[in-house]
Each structure stands twice: as structure tokens, then as C-alpha cells.
Amino acid sequence: MFQLGTHGFLLATLSLVPTRVFCSSAEVPDVPNIAAYFGTKTRYEEVKPNLLRDPLTVNTSVLRPPPGEFCTPVHVTAVIRHGSRYPTAKNIRRILTLSQLVQKDASRTSRGSIGWLQELRDRWEPWYTEDMDGQLVRKGRDDLQFLARRLATLFPSLLSKENVTKRRIRLATSSKHRCVSSVEAFQEGLKQHWGCHDDAPGYSHEVDDELMRFFERCRGYVEGVENNRTALLEVEKFKHGEEMEAVRRRMADKIGLSRHLLTPDLVEAAFFICSYELSIKSIHSPWCSLFDESDAKVLEYKSDLKQFWKRSHGHGITSLSSCPLFHHIFRTLDKAGRPRRSTEAGPEPASILVGHAETLLPLLSLLGLYKDQTLPTASNYHSQHGRSFRTSRIVPYAANLLFVLYDCQRGPRLQMLLNETPLRFPGLQAEDAPLYRDVRATYRHLLDGCDFHRECEGRVEGRGPNTEL
After folding, report:
1. Among 275, 243, 270, which Cα is nearest to 257's?
2. How far is CA 199 from CA 111, 163, 164, 190, 193, in A?
3. What amino acid positions are annotated as catalytic residues?
4. N or C: which terminus of the chain carries fewer CB neighbours within 10 A?
């Protein structure tokens, strides 16, 4: 199969490396008790809380080829979401509207008129400006730099100093500025890890929207879902349903506003302020005190409904729009895993692809992941508390999906990790790293089909909810 290199004992060696321990007297910042429910606006640290004390903590035991089989990692493909960002212009406008409303119309005699509410009314100043419009923040650069350094520790032979300085690692990104800034930060992290800024000046990524923003090019998706009001009917029904109405009522009472002034969008804007102040500034905003955990779960579900019906299993065309990325990943793995002579150049050691939550969710759906037995709807909120489809856990800022290809004695094996945690392939639940040929057999229907032009340029009508795997 492969030529075993000088890193033949890599996994055995790594298993002896302890998790890095960071000793510091610094306190972990005060975190709101609703921080784990911010959906796609969740910090990566809510998924990996150990990173709050040491952002370079690495658990090498997540690499899990069969323990009795000699294996060496020969390639890793990483599909990564951009890091923490500013609000988009649309949400900044809502935040400014809400702030003006509270300062002008909130009652001064409502319960809670001291403490956090007084701070919110009298001292909190909106500092967001529309030109920020979704740009990467300093914390977002840190997200990607630290991720790069952790992955270099986890895969020292693939993200090696030599591979970095000789630019053997493929890097591609969406054209959006937050993604370009993220892939730059990732490269900076690799150079920091190896101390090789002078050996590899500048950046070496390419912009590839056909790969990382496939959803924009899929006519069936754009017309059938993105621009189709009925496609998100469940979201609209829940937005004006009894659970959201109860959250709106409680917030209006706490803040002393007439309920007719406080729209569902402004309720969500207040929730977003709490998330942005945490993810951007690492502070516990007074806006967080407007919501308890039950409120946060309702608002998370509203966000999850939107992502499910717009970006995931809700409509079949959504996952099929990711066919170009799916085929690219498997072509890369096939090339890395093909037999070669000892005189031939080695395979591409790593492929780093930076995009969006909208990039990852359709791909995860196409792979058959995070599909619960009962679809989430506006009417079944109370039966969905145990759902696996929680975007707060799946696609926080800097979310990452890794495909690790091993050269093993019985043949190549493939392991998948989501957010640096092992994730098993549907239908292959017995092993963390099944044989690559078995993975290809599982997805044979997609490898032989999943034609982007046919799926996306065909008839738009008739693309109802997806009830297939």
C-alpha cells in the first residue's frame, strides 16, 4: 500500500505523550450559564472547555486506529469554519434598534431596576458599527492560530516544519474576509508552532468559492430553499409560537417594555448581544441576565430549526449541494492512499479547507450524520431536548471536521473527528477507524453519483423534506 516512512512508530510514541498541562493562577473568566446555547454563535470553548485554561491542550488519545494493528497517519483533510467574528450588518442594525428602544422606552420602575438592569439602561453603550459586518475579530484569529498549533502537535509528521516551509500543505478558503483572515491565522499558527516565520514568508492559500461556497452555485438550492419562503415554514411558526411568546413576555417584564414594542427579532438580538460580548470580549454582558437557561434552550431551538431546514436534512437538495466538496475530499484521500513506488513523491500530507457553518452542515448531512429519528418542527419542541442536531455542539466558531487517513497492516483506514473528538461513520459504528475500502463502500451511491450539475440544475419543484439517510 504505502511506503512506511521514518514516522512508523509515530502513534506508539504519541500515545506516551501526556496531555499538555498549563499551570497558571489566572482565573477562568466568568461565563454566563447560557453560553452553551448560542447555536452557530457559540464559542469553541463551550465545546472544548479545557481550552479555557490552556488553549494548546492536546489529547493524543483521540487518534484511534485498531490498537493491535501497526498504523501511521499519512494524510489529514480538515474542513474548518472561520473563527469568532463581529455581527453581520443586519444584526448590528437590530442591536442598535434594541439599545435605543431600551434607553428610550424601558420603564425605570420595573423590577430589577438596580444592578444589571441599571447597568444595561444607563451605562451599556452599543459599540458595534455596520462596517464591522461579520469580520474576524482578534479572538477569531486566536481560534485558528491555536487550532493550527494543536493539530501540528497531533499530526507532527503531516503538519511538520518541513511541510510548512516547503509549502506542501494545500490551503483553500472561501472568499469572505472572515475566512481569508482565518486561513491566514491558521498559517501563522503553524509558523508559530515551528518557529519558521522567516523560512516561509507570506501566505500560500487559494480562494475557491466553487469548493467552499458551493451553496451559492446550486440553482436548485437557491430557488428551492434559500429564496423559497415556504422552505422555512417551521421556523416562522415557532418564531411566533407559544414558547417564543413566553420568552418575549418574560423579557418585556424584566426590562419594563411594552410587549408590542419587543418583537421576536429584538428578543433574539438581545440574546445575540450576550453571545457576541462573550465571544469577542470574553465578558459576561448585562444582556445575559435577561435570559435563564429555559429561555436559552428555546432560542437555541429556534436557531437549530433554521439551520436544520435551511442548511441540513430539512430539504434533500441542501445536502446534495455539497457534492463538489464531498468528491474533492474523497479524490484527495484516494490520491493520498494509492500505491506508489519508493522513488515516487509522497502524498499531499494535509489539505486545510476554510469555510462557513453553511459549508460544514450540508456536508455533515450528506455523510448521514446528526439526523434524528424525528424531524424537528415548530410543534415538537418539548420532545426534542435529547436531539443530536444541536448546532451549538456541531458548528461553533472554528468548528473542524477532520478526515485522517492511516497506512495500516491490513490496508488504509480512515478516521473522522469533529471538533477534535472522534466521530464514527454511519453504518460503521464498530470502529473509530474502519478500513478505507469499507468507508468507500458505505458511500458508494454518492461516489458513483452525487452529480452537482444534475442535482442543482434539474427541476426545482418536487424537492420536499429529505426522509432518506
Report:
1. 270
2. 62, 11, 9, 12, 13
3. 82
4. C
